[in-house]
Amino acid sequence: MASGGSAIRGSRVGAGPMGEQDRGFQAERVAVSYWDELGNETVRYYSATLPDDEIPATIDSPSTGLPAGRDKDNPPQVTKLEPYKTHLAYVKERRTEEEAEALLEESLQQLRARRGMTA
């Protein structure tokens, strides 16, 4: 069985005769290395026109999740993580026990009034 023969089979639509070589202008960039506490290096690329103060001083290492800094000899230390707080924990920080009981009683009175159960 003879093949139909498509000239573009296997090539990208819009590709010129030389393939992908002329696919636009490559912007100049600068490589910045970051190191984590375990000595792992991560390289990030930024625009060469970006001011140095806009390049992040620390990032999260993609391999370990630890903070990584630009100083190889002095990587950032892991900060102590606060435990997850529930909504109730935040409410308890804002309200005293007496305020909570007063609000609960007020809400119960409103609910009973709506249901016609006032005493």
How would you describe this structure to a colleague?
The model has no long low-confidence stretch (mean pLDDT 83). The protein has helices at 87-94, 97-115, and strands at residues 29-35, 41-47, 58-60, 67-69. It has a two-stranded antiparallel sheet. The termini are far apart. The longest helix has 19 residues, at 97-115. The chain has 2 helices and 4 strands. 4% of the residues are buried. The protein is an alpha+beta fold. Among the domains are: 29-69, no CATH class; 82-119, no CATH class.
Briefly, what is this?
This protein has about 120 residues and is an alpha+beta fold. The chain has 2 helices and 4 strands, in the order ββββαα. The chain starts with about 30 loop residues before the first strand and ends with a helix.
